[in-house]
Amino acid sequence: NRGQEGLGILNELLISRYKEGTFEPILYESKEQALSVILEERRKSLVFRGYSRWTDLRRFLREPDWNGPSGRTVMGETYDLGLDPSNYYLQIPINEIELNPAL
């Protein structure tokens, strides 16, 4: 089971973050729970490395049981990309377009 394998690897990484003897291995009851735990840890581990998080979001759009990321509210304005893949495209930077008009 890939979820069990993923959690095994995650537990190996996490044990080094805890004081010796205080870490309790993460267990799961379902595939969905395992995936949720792994993605949450990945989100925390890859903070400030936005592209990795972005590719995770795009990749999981193809999963039929995935509900997508939750929206965010910033200064009273709610932003939600939903499940439309076109909402996850990144714009080509203007300087790249100027360097290559064929884009």
Can you tell me about this structure?
With 103 residues, the protein is mainly alpha-helical. It folds into two domains: 45 residues, no CATH class; 53 residues, no CATH class. The chain is built from four helices and two strands. The protein has a two-stranded antiparallel sheet with strand order 1-2. α1 runs parallel beside α2. The radius of gyration is 18 Å and the shape is elongated. It starts with a helix and ends with a helix. The mean pLDDT is 83.
Over the alpha carbons, how many angstroms does the gyration radius reach? 18 Å
**N→C terminal distance:** 43 Å
Oligomer description: single chain
The stretches of 5 or more residues where confidence is low (pLDDT under 50) are none
Helix proportion range: 40-55%
CA-based shape: elongated
Strand order of the largest sheet: 1-2
Count of strand segments? 2
The overall pLDDT average reads 83
- Give the structural class: mainly alpha
Number of domains: 2
Q: Please state roughly what percent of the residues sit in beta strands, choosing from under 5%, 5-15%, 15-25%, 25-35%, 35-45% or over 45%.
A: 5-15%
Biggest beta-sheet profile = 2 strands, antiparallel
